[in-house]
Structure formats: C-alpha cells, structure tokens
Amino acid sequence: MEGLLANKTIVVMGVANRRSIAWGCAQEMEKQGATVIYTYNRERTLKRMTKLVGEEKADRMIQCDVASDESIQRAFQQIGEQFGQLDGVVHSVAFANPAELGGEMTDVSREGYALAQDVSAYSLIAVCRAAAPLLKNPASVVTMSYFGAERAIPNYNVMGVAKAALEANVRYLARDMGKNGVRVNAISAGALKTLAVTGIQGHGELLAMSKARTVDGKDVTIEEVGGTATFLMSDLSTGVTGDVIYVDKGVHLI
C-alpha cells in the first residue's frame, strides 16, 4: 500500500540520529507520501539532522525546546506560518538524568524526578496546546511509551514513572481533544538500541532480555514502530484514540 499519507503534513519531534524511533516514524511516513516537518532541540542537533535529512529540506527543520513553553509556542507559530494546518504530530521526546536511571527508586532526587516528568510527560500537554489551533479535523497525535510504564523494569526507575504519567496524559488529552476531531494515542515500543536506551545502566542486559521474550526471537525495528505510527496518522485509524498500542513483538505478553 502506498500513498496512505498523501497530502498530509506531519510534525515529527525527537529525531537524534538514524537509530531514533522518531527517524523510523519519519521515514515510513515519507514513504507514504507525507510532508514531514522536523523539530530539533539545539544547534548541534540541527547539524546532525541536516546530514540525516538533507540540506534540501532545511526549511522543514524547526527549533523547539520542549522544556520551554515559549519555545514550543514559537515553534508551532513558525510551523503555522510556513506550512499552514497540520494533520498530525509525533511526540518522541523523553529525558532523565543518567544518574537517576540506576540503583533504587529511593535514590531518585526531587530535581531529577521533576526533570523527567517535565520533559518526558508534561511536554506532550504543552505540545498539544500549541499545536491545537493548527490541527485539522480529523488529526492525530502520537507519543512514544515503553513497558516500564506498567512494570518495574530494572534501572528504568524515574523514566518508568514518567512514562506512566505520559500514558495517563494520553487518555485525558484524547478525551478533551476528541471534540475537535483530534485523536491521541501512544505506542509502547519494544526495547531498541537508541541513544536514550544507552543511558540506562545495564542496557545491554535489558536489550538481550527483551529480544529473548519476543515471540519470534527477533528485535523489533524502528521501521515497525514507524509503520504503526503511520497507521495512527492515517485516516484508517479515526476510530482509535486514548489507547496504548504495543509494538514490541509480544514482549508484554509474558
């Protein structure tokens, strides 16, 4: 099937490198005909993204720091001025201090807890608020979660709590934004060797354990996650909202 997202304009937030889940989403969406707008956090991120995306798409790269309401508002104002209305937003952004991703939960600092919640969970609310005036009816917002939102994954700690908050945000946002034809969902992606995962202590063991629990003994790929995100951005998914969809090859079954 081709052209599933023809004539659709979608913002993808969180591309760090070619192993990023956000990159897998962007690539699959472009294959289906979408015009993808990329956001980046800082100048050094822009340099990497330009090499990845290509200088010919420089006008599609918009600076946005999700820890700043002003930056988010400015980014979506610029997007609106350049591209008009949007068909969707992919929010693939999360952060916690590496020091908070190890040891025991009681070791987590107040500041570290607040930072993880701010960047990983609250930012979805802030992004939806800024994007709302631009989103068409229908439109779609998709964010990225992980099984650590439900289970106590070793060393995931404060990020697991942030992902649980993120999934709750999805339900409440879906309820409130649905009246304007905007659906909000999360993808619970399997463990992937991304830049974010390498910040977790013992991430090698986590990846091996996840692979061993897949139903076919193979790792999920960013392309597979991107395929599900593409479906959720398409008009085929207009009946799906407030949900968490697993793309982990069955790891959550066991």
From TrEMBL:
Keyword Oxidoreductase: yes
GO molecular function terms attached to this record: enoyl-[acyl-carrier-protein] reductase (NADH) activity
Residues the entry annotates as binding substrate: 96
Source organism per UniProt: Limosilactobacillus fermentum NB-22
Keyword field: Fatty acid biosynthesis, Fatty acid metabolism, Lipid biosynthesis, Lipid metabolism, NAD, Oxidoreductase
Binding sites annotated in the UniProt record for NAD(+): 14, 20-21, 65-66, 93, 163
InterPro entries (UniProt xref): Enoyl-ACP_Rdtase_NADH (IPR014358), NAD(P)-bd_dom_sf (IPR036291), SDR_fam (IPR002347)
Gene Ontology biological process terms from the UniProt entry: fatty acid biosynthetic process
Protein name stated in the entry: Enoyl-[acyl-carrier-protein] reductase [NADH]
Xref: Pfam families: adh_short_C2
